[in-house]
UniProtKB/TrEMBL annotation:
<keyword id="KW-0221">Differentiation</keyword>
<dbReference type="GO" id="GO:0048471">
    <property type="term" value="C:perinuclear region of cytoplasm"/>
</dbReference>
<dbReference type="GO" id="GO:0030018">
    <property type="term" value="C:Z disc"/>
</dbReference>
<feature type="domain" description="UNC-45/Cro1/She4 central">
    <location>
        <begin position="312"/>
        <end position="489"/>
    </location>
</feature>
<dbReference type="GO" id="GO:0030154">
    <property type="term" value="P:cell differentiation"/>
</dbReference>
<feature type="repeat" description="TPR">
    <location>
        <begin position="45"/>
        <end position="78"/>
    </location>
</feature>
<dbReference type="GO" id="GO:0031672">
    <property type="term" value="C:A band"/>
</dbReference>
<dbReference type="InterPro" id="IPR011990">
    <property type="entry name" value="TPR-like_helical_dom_sf"/>
</dbReference>
<keyword id="KW-0143">Chaperone</keyword>
<keyword id="KW-0802">TPR repeat</keyword>
<dbReference type="InterPro" id="IPR016024">
    <property type="entry name" value="ARM-type_fold"/>
</dbReference>
<dbReference type="InterPro" id="IPR024660">
    <property type="entry name" value="UCS_central_dom"/>
</dbReference>
<protein>
    <recommendedName>
        <fullName>Protein unc-45 homolog B</fullName>
    </recommendedName>
</protein>
<dbReference type="InterPro" id="IPR019734">
    <property type="entry name" value="TPR_rpt"/>
</dbReference>
<dbReference type="GO" id="GO:0051879">
    <property type="term" value="F:Hsp90 protein binding"/>
</dbReference>
<dbReference type="Pfam" id="PF00515">
    <property type="entry name" value="TPR_1"/>
</dbReference>
<keyword id="KW-0963">Cytoplasm</keyword>
Amino acid sequence: MVQVEEAENYKNKGNDAFKSEDYELALSLYNKAINITAKDSRDMATYLKNRAAAYLKLKEYEKTIKDCSEALDIIPEDPKAMFRRAQALENLERYEEAYRDAKTIFTVDPANKAIQPMLGRLHAIVEERARTAAQTSNKVDQMFKLAFEFTADNDKREKAMTNLLVLSKENAAAEVMLKNGIIHKIQQLVKNEKHPEIYINSIRVISQLCKGNVQRTISVINVVGVPWFLEIIDSDNEEIVNVAQYCLQTILNTFSGMDSNKETKPDKKLCEEHKSSIDTLLTCLTYSITNRVITGLARDAIIELIMRNCHYTTLNWSERFIEIRGLQRLLEVCSELEEYKYESAMNITPSSRTIAAACLAKIYENMYYDEARGKFNEQVDDFVKSKLLTPDLESKVRVTVAITSLLRGPLDVGNYVISKEGIIEMILVMAQTDDQLQQKTACECLIAAASKKDKAKAIITKGVDILKKLYTCKNDAVRVRALVGLCKIGSFGGDDASIRPFADGSTSKLADACRKFLINPAKDKDMRKWAAEGLSYLTLDADVKEKLVEDKAALNSLIELAKTGDQSCLYGVVTTLVNLCNAYDKQEIMPEMLELAKFAKHHIPEQHELDDPDFVNKRLTVLCKAGVTSGLVALAKTESHNSRELIARVFNAICSLQDLRGIVVQQGGAKVLIPMALEGTNTGKKQAAQALARIGITINPEVAFPGQRNLEVVRPLLALLHPDCTALENFEALMALCNLAGMNETTRNRILKEGGLSKIENYMYEDHVMLQRAATQCICNLVQSEEVIKTFEGNNDKTKFLTLLCQEEDIDTVMAASGALCVLTAANKTCCRKILDLDSWLESLRCLLANPNKEIQYRGTYLLYNIVKEDVDMAARVFETDVMEILMAITKLDDQECKRSKECAQKCLNAAEELGVIRKPDDKLPH
């Protein structure tokens, strides 16, 4: 009895809170009543109904339905429970179910007035949906007859399949298609389909059916099975491979709650629920990495899928990948040879080893504790030992190729392996043989090993003579690799003009040798790729930079290499471009430290005169006009974060010149910069975001970021409003955001949703004229939003601070602050009152009204009109001062530019007169 009374007490308090619209408190009290009440009692039904009402107000519709259903289990056909469930179902657009409940209520309680409008509304919706469903079913039937009839005209079949793809995006049509057996039909179609466009669109239909719908995805997999997806990805047609890869990613996203936006995080609850399905898919993909019969393109796509989903920010599958010996499979790909001297174990593309190395690096990133790294290294050791147990030359070659990939992927692991006893000696011995494949392989490994100055020095002492000897051999493939090794060693002084490991003139000779390989049309792409890598080291030398930029043939060849999009060319090409643009990090030398270094007789780096800004800007212009942006766009598809950072650096350097930003946009640069600004290294994201900001300052955002992109660019720009960013980065981001805020309400809402308002406002308080100006201009555009205006109504001094800014010396800041105040005071009387609550409000008004800038003067009169119109008290306060004399003076100005100010000043005087605050001199005093 005590518990019953206590529960009833909680319920009554909950009802009081509900009436006061404190729904969270009501919910808490109803929960307490439910927790101490017998499950099947009538009281429980009441408490559940009440809690459902609170959930309904809080828009927690699923929970509303659950509570109502439980209440109905206790008291069937209870009108209140059924009505609340119907409301929740309607809000979730589950109209047929809502209509069923509404009809039941009407049957039980025909006099219920609340249900009648709902019943009429739902009846119309359900009828319309039934009619649409019938039409949809007819459309689907027609398209089926055309698309899956192999004897029909291919053009008609292609159009029908395209229509099915469009229909699959509609939920009702997707259900009809599934019910009518589209999965079986597509499964049969892909076995014999010869028309690539029909084949590709049929796979896209599967992707669309699976997208965001777990039940449909399970239905698809139950029909075709996971191996079917591995069959369709096995193709030599790049477009087919891409759509199959996308389809598999869509399925993983559906099971995990992710989407195509790389910033989205998986839903832990969904991942746990579908853990088995996710694990099966990724395990099948892992086992397919070393499938001997699939195409190289399919293998690359499978590795990319593993790479995208293994990281702890996605499905966190790296440890499981290592557990099922996935590392060994990746290392097998890394050890594969494109040459046919040895029997090839599998098909690979020129990018396969690069992609596998990037995947190894991504997995190693997840090994954030010692035990996990130990397991990683242990499996790498096992692979190396298993290969070297066989004494034949092929095993040594394959191990060396794998070590090269490790040095290009998880560098720490590569260094760990190469430092093991006998490994570097084995590589040097291979380099000195007469076997060209061994020579090539050893050269590549030595190049990768000289990744740091200490390693470069070690190789100078051990291997430089060997590299020089190899450079004199007759085989071009060996020569170009030896050349790159010499280039790398010759560049370890970086851009310090005072350090030269080789004799004067040697760097230019090496660059000339690279150029010959690069521009020679008789040389294959592999040779040109290595020549580009050689230049990537030599172009730290300013003389080489200038010579290369002036060499149109070499520059065009470099850009054409980039446009191929070959990932194996990426490092050499992009690093060369970074060097040409001087887009690498430069150490700032403080004058005090310089003097100290001189005193201590330490080495002081010297900048070459050809690295002065004028020369750098000239190089940027030449590169951009030669079409470098198109090459960068082609290479930007890489999954390597470090490579994306290099690409972003080049883009940002080019965008530093205002005249080049239009070219970047025209050639698709803005499109690829957005994903680079959202995912990657911190530096890479910052560089890409700054490039976007620079584009957004100069070019109309509607042109630079059309459609959805103007929303996507908001987050990267806001990321630059951070204390760790430079003042220039802050300023450029504010300017770009200002332009975006002026576009439309949707974009302004996105800025607010991403927390942009408070970030922007912070810079209004900066003791930096440019930052304060840019932030105020941004706010001036943002106040066009009703949501922003509401923030100025609250208990804060934001309106007052804008009024204070009207006293600043910077004209542009005053213009923006007064513009924002004009909008605020026109929309809201509270803001008008806040201005007059400021002690120095009169000083601010005088600054505006007496300003020599005619636009600011007009804004001052407009602002004043908003304050005085229709409010006697405020008008009286204003006209107690000398404002009337200033306004009268403005009305007498003759300057044509003052026309708007004169008109507005007169409106102020007229408004005050109508309110009885002032009178004309000839007016009689009232009796």
